[in-house]
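REQUEST ID: PR-0412
SUBMITTED BY: lab tech R.K.
PRIORITY: routine
TASK: structure prediction, single protein chain
INPUT:
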Amino acid sequence: MTSRRAHVIVTGNEKGGSGKSTTAMHLAVGLLRDGRRIACIDLDARQGTLTNYLSNRQRFIDEKAIDLPMPQFRIIEHSAEPNRDAAEIDDETRLFETINELSKDHDAIVIDTPGADSSLTRLGHSFADTLITPLNDSFIDLDVLARVDPVALTIKNPSHYAEMVWQQKMRRAKRDGGSTDWIVMRNRLSHLDARNKREVERLLSELSVRVGFRQVAGFGERVIYRELFLAGLTMMDIIDVLGADSLTMSHLSARQEVRNLIDAIGFGC
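STATUS: complete
OUTPUT:
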């Protein structure tokens, strides 16, 4: 790698619909607005949610003639090599070189990974300085991290995704001696207190010690997060688009959620 490598932030979860791409987009734009030089890499070329999000943003900028910050962007598709081992080597080489290239002119690189197990999913995780795993606040989604005893409501053992993250941490350490700060972000949080919500929080706190992640509050259950996708906007763009006088308390709360996540990363670019 270059003598200076950009801070790599990876959004990952093997379960689809967890909010990875929304998280990646809000992080990228939020950091750009902080004055950071940001690039994005989409490893999920098949679904292409982050790619489409950024395309929608560019179209909005062109149609509205409005100046909004845009990250530099790359897409990495699965290797066309027919041999599996050769394909994985090719994938790793291309991602390695892309990170190396982007590091020359950027402070951080935000990588969005596929919502299923694949060689690119694993590979993306292995390059993370900060790994952010959005997790919908439910027992269904908790299952991706741990098996829970349904009667005692205790953790029986870490699940497949937690094991994969540990393996990729070891891969990272072997490659360059680096380490990964793993953040589990509780997403789509209900604004109401509920027994299930408290139990999920308790189990995550126990699991965090066991498998080594930090737990942070993520984004609330707000319709606006989904509505912004078609325009390619984030909560950090609302002032430019609507004006400060049009912001509601919900807008302000959502912006603070994004700010809290950025602050939780705490890297020095």
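NOTES: The beta strands are 7-11, 38-42, 72-75, 108-112, 130-136, 146-148, 155-158, 181-187, 214-217.
REVIEWED BY: pending
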